[in-house]
Every structure is written in C-alpha cells, then in structure tokens.
Amino acid sequence: MLADRHFVSQLKDRAESAILTLVDSYYAPIFCYLYRLVGDEHIAAELTQETFLKAYTALPRLADDSNLSDWLYQIATNLARQSYRRQRLVRWLSLGQIKTQQCGFEEQVAQHDLVGQSLAKLPADYRTCLLLQIWSGLSCAEIAQVMNKSESAVKMILSRARRRFRDVYETLSQDDAS
C-alpha cells in the first residue's frame, strides 16, 4: 500500500487513528515475513513489536513520499539481521565457554560480578557504546545515531572502551585473586 501524503502527514504528527491503521494494515504481513525469516514464532512476535516501536519513533523523520510497506519491511529486515547476529554470537560464545571454561557456578557468578564492576568503572560514553554493541547488537553506524556522534567517533570510543575495560577487569580480577 503506497500511502498518500495526507496519511503520511497524519503519521508524522502521530495521529492515533493513522497509527492504528498502519498497525492494523501491516502487523500480520510483517509478522508472517519475520516468522518465515527467523523460523521462530516468539522471536518473530518480538521482532514485529520492535519493528513497530522503531517505526513509531522514526515517524517524525518519515519522508512525505515514503512507501510505508518498503519502509516497514526494511526496519523488520534490519531487526531480523541484528537478531541473527546476536543469536550467532551467543551460540559461538556458549560453545567457546564450554570448551575453554569448565568452571563451577560460583566462579561464573564471580566473573559476572567482575564484568559488572568493570563496566561501572568506565566513563558513561564507554559503557554505553560497549553495551549497545555487545548487548544490543547495534552496528557502529546505529550507535552513532543513538549517541548523536559520528561513526568514526564511535569506533574510537569503542576501541578505547575495550582497552580500558580489559585493564579494569584485569586489575579487579588480580585484586580478587590476592
């Protein structure tokens, strides 16, 4: 459905009736698309919700001649890719931990606490960039948009944040060992 300018204008103004019409028109097709893409009903439902949330926050920036269908499918596709990258990373990390770390529950809790303490000692920008990239799976370009910085600035912050995190983590783990 290629939207007319009046409807897009209503969406940009976040008119409730226009938003409800958008969701009613596209929720099922987006869900079905995501379900076929990810193969899991629950993940597809979460990604569909996230798609409409991202769309809602981006409505004021929507171009007047936007094709709503293409726009929503692009958001959904990007979210599915991010989800896939996160799942792949989690599976990879899990396998790596099984092979290299045969530690008990207490040791895992201690490591988790060390990570939290290390993050808490980082400057806010460093902590934010690391969490957006590692926990949320955002790319440098996406982090730049979120933080209102250039992509090169985000890359530099991430590089410095990783280095600082390693230093803080090593110091804290040595302190715990002694």
Short characterization:
With 178 residues, the chain is mainly alpha-helical. Helices cover 81% and strands 0% of the residues.
Task: Describe the protein in words.
The chain starts with a helix and ends with a helix. The chain has helices at residues 5-12, 16-38, 41-58, 68-100, 105-120, 124-134, 140-147, 151-177. The chain contains 8 helices and no strands. Helix 5 crosses helix 8 (151-177). The longest helix is centred in the middle third of the chain and has 33 residues, at 68-100. The protein is mainly α and 178 residues long. The relative contact order is 0.08. It has 2 domains: 1-102, RNA polymerase sigma factor, region 2, helix turn helix motif (Rna Polymerase Sigma Factor, Chain: A); 103-178, Arc Repressor Mutant, subunit A. Residues 91-101 have low confidence and may be disordered.
What Rg is obtained from the alpha carbons, in whole angstroms?
21 Å
List the domain count as a whole number. 2
Strand content: under 5%
Question: Strand-and-helix sequence, N→C?
Answer: HHHHHHHH
What is the mean predicted local confidence, pLDDT?
80
Number of helices: 8
Q: What is the CATH level 1 assignment of the largest domain?
A: Mainly Alpha
Q: Give the CATH H-level superfamily of the largest domain.
A: RNA polymerase sigma factor, region 2, helix turn helix motif
User: What summary fits the major beta sheet?
Assistant: none
Return the structural class.
Answer: mainly alpha
Q: How far do the termini sit from each other?
A: 66 Å
- Portion of residues within helices: over 70%
The shape is elongated
